[in-house]
Amino acid sequence: MSDHHIGMIVPSSNLTMETELPRMLRAREESEPADRFVFHSARARMRHVEPEQLRAMNAQAGRAAAELADAKPDVVATACLVAIMAQGPGYHCTAEDDITRVLREEGCESPVVSSAGALLSGLGALGARKVAIITPYMKPLTKAVADYIEDAGFEVADALSLEVPDNLAVARLDPAGLREHHRRLNLSDVDALVLSACVQMPSLSAIQPVEDEIGIPVLSAATATTYRILSELGVEPRVPGAGSLLKGAKARTKTGGGHGRESVV
């Protein structure tokens, strides 16, 4: 049996990252008990999803990374997608590099994953080019997320903003609502649906049912982050009942646009 230690940099008000990722990897343990996953978190202060607090949270990433380095995790994931995407196209590369530098200074060789970069990798792994997204954000932040995705070479055909600015309130959203919200989007001719472009908005229980209903791949920031974590660990990215991205198909992908990163899994 192999133990894989996962470090997570989590917004202080996030209740979902430490719920959905462990649920997925516990499900994987049940189906493939040779791999076991252990989680370690460091928190960065953020209560409201607004530009000033997002920038302030990003500034705490180095301190959080240094704390995680003491645990010598096998991979480190930073969890707030919008905090990174709101800083402008390609910022996930900067954020990942900054955290990597701190880890190396602390003697930790862990690879670094961001939920923002993971979402792009996930879309690339699915071969998607035209997508629709659902976010809990106010419309200006949703536009920033859509612009970021488009800069990476994908087309965002439609987007739905649920407009919930309080981060704790986002965590309390019922994922069952996503089984209805997606019907408000134009999904004609799209290759994939991002059911939750936010690791705080619960969606895991809706991913597979919505995918089964609409007949195209459905993913979320959380499933994409899980995909990247497993890939960085050298473990087949397979989780039962979590959508096409986590069915385990191996692919060589390159996210589009000048800021994308190539990954081989």
Automatic annotation (TrEMBL):
Residue numbers spanned by region Disordered: 246-265
Listed EC numbers: 5.2.1.1
Matches recorded under HAMAP family: Maleate_isomerase
Function, as annotated: Catalyzes cis-trans isomerization of the C2-C3 double bond in maleate to yield fumarate.
Keywords, ordered alphabetically: Isomerase
Gene3D superfamilies attached to this UniProt entry: 3.40.50.12500
Active-site residues, as the UniProt record annotates them: C80 (nucleophile), C198 (proton donor)
Binding partners and assembly: Homodimer.
Protein name in UniProt: Maleate isomerase
Other remarks on this protein: Reaction is initiated by nucleophilic attack of cysteine at the double bond, yielding a covalent succinylcysteine-like intermediate.
Coiled coil regions, renumbered to chain: none
Family stated for the protein in its record: Belongs to the maleate isomerase family.
Gene Ontology MF term list: maleate isomerase activity
PANTHER family found in the cross-reference section: BLR3294 PROTEIN
Organism of origin: Amycolatopsis lurida NRRL 2430
Catalyzed reactions per annotation: maleate = fumarate
Positions of substrate binding: N14, C80, L81, V82, Y137, N167, V199, Q200
